[in-house]
Amino acid sequence: MGRLIKNSIHRVRIEGYTSEGLGVARIDGMAVFVHAALAGEACEVQILKVLKNCAFAKVLTVEEPSPHRREPDCPWYGRCGGCGLRHMDYEEELRAKRRRVQDALNRLGGLDVEVEEILGAEEPLHYRNKSQYPVSAQGSVGFYRARSHDVVPVERCLIQHPAADDTAGAVRAWMKRWGVCGYDESTGTGLVRHVYVRVNRRGESLCCLLVNGEKLPHEAELVEEVRSAAPATVGVVLGVNKRPGNVILGQSYRTLWGSEVLTDTMCGLTFQLSVPSFYQVNTPQAERLYGKALDFAALTGEETALDLYCGIGTITLCLAGRAKRAIGAEIVPEAIEDARENARRNHVDNAEFFCGDASDVSERLLKEGLRPDVICVDPPRKGLAAGVVDTVAGMQPGRIVYVSCDPATLARDAKRFKVLGYPMARAAAVDLFPGTAHVETVALLLPE
């Protein structure tokens, strides 16, 4: 087998996609991952990088284009790392995402389960209710270039809410007007690190500046600039983040003007959101995600339901509406405070919340004799710790509903559950992130 050489040119047929949405081809038996190529296309490609078991390439010419190829609708596409799939139509994007979940369950999990459907977004543009704009040392406000921390200045983004773009633009103008410097990661100097904006369904927004310090120059002028650009702003908050590295959120917060929280509605419930609160970024699609989870939970009103990694209580309160008792657990103290407040706000009196690591809380509840009828888990991208899998299965629930933001870790955990007597029975995908390679999955695991 010949060795691929950097800069060499080859004609290939694209067979499918990687988990990041790159096209996959083969040259002399080696997998070649091709940027901006679509399944089925015949392309002339140039090799960019050769590794031991794979290579990366770019398209020079598309000799046989896919009918799903489209001209990217964003002028920053290919430079900004936010979206990776704007060269394909939405039909192909959904097909690729469903196939990604299916491949993960089959190949990585060894599971014989069909992904029943993928629920696409009715509105694939301007869907994000939370925006995080990094700021460069030179004062550029935008998004990171792919696989780097170089900030690409972006004035209008197709997946952010216009109010968030307006707010970021106001901060950009304020920095320029008053000579306020951005943060330099390499030296740890400079002030403004990120512009963070939440927007609710009514179009109201909450602005937070994450800064390398305790205060800002010209704070009153910042508030004035933001409120002028985004009149529906409910509050402007300063977040203090003096830690090195790329952590975004602050260690403490101070309200410069207005409210420190934003309220929003989801699934018929009202939620209070502080800056660090976890909340799905696409509200209409989150409702469909949670709706599918409730369908899989099949509650009748007589059950006890346990929700691990509950955040501010979104899923827990949805479960409480259909169960006799709902219990939520979360390691972040502020999130648990928000969850309890959200239960009070929505007059939900059959939900309770515990603060602690999912492993510790589930182990304690097991020792106390709790046997939930339904357990729902919605872990971060890294999935479940092995101890959580063991404890959840040890509680012997009638159903386990797994909400996942990473098909690979879902497949790994599902394989562990199967060994413990809980094979996966059903799975469905939900697209919360149009234009990007991310996809959510809801899976149902039943005892054998």
UniProtKB/TrEMBL annotation:
Keyword Transmembrane: no
Keyword hit for Zinc: no
Gene3D superfamilies cross-referenced by the UniProt entry: 2.40.50.1070, Nucleic acid-binding proteins, Vaccinia Virus protein VP39
Keyword terms of this UniProt record: Methyltransferase, S-adenosyl-L-methionine, Transferase
Single Gene Ontology BP annotation: rRNA base methylation
Catalytic machinery residues: C405 (nucleophile), C405
Residues bound to S-adenosyl-L-methionine: Q280, Y309, E330, D378
UniProt domain TRAM: residue ranges: 1-61
GO molecular function annotations of the record: rRNA (uridine-C5-)-methyltransferase activity
Superkingdom: Bacteria
E.C. number(s) listed in UniProt: 2.1.1.190
Top EC class for this record: transferase
Alphabetical list of Pfam families matching this protein: TRAM (PF01938), tRNA_U5-meth_tr (PF05958)
NCBIfam families: rumA
Recorded family membership: Belongs to the class I-like SAM-binding methyltransferase superfamily. RNA M5U methyltransferase family.
Protein name (Swiss-Prot/TrEMBL): 23S rRNA (Uracil(1939)-C(5))-methyltransferase RlmD
Originating organism: Oscillibacter hominis
Gene name of this polypeptide: rlmD
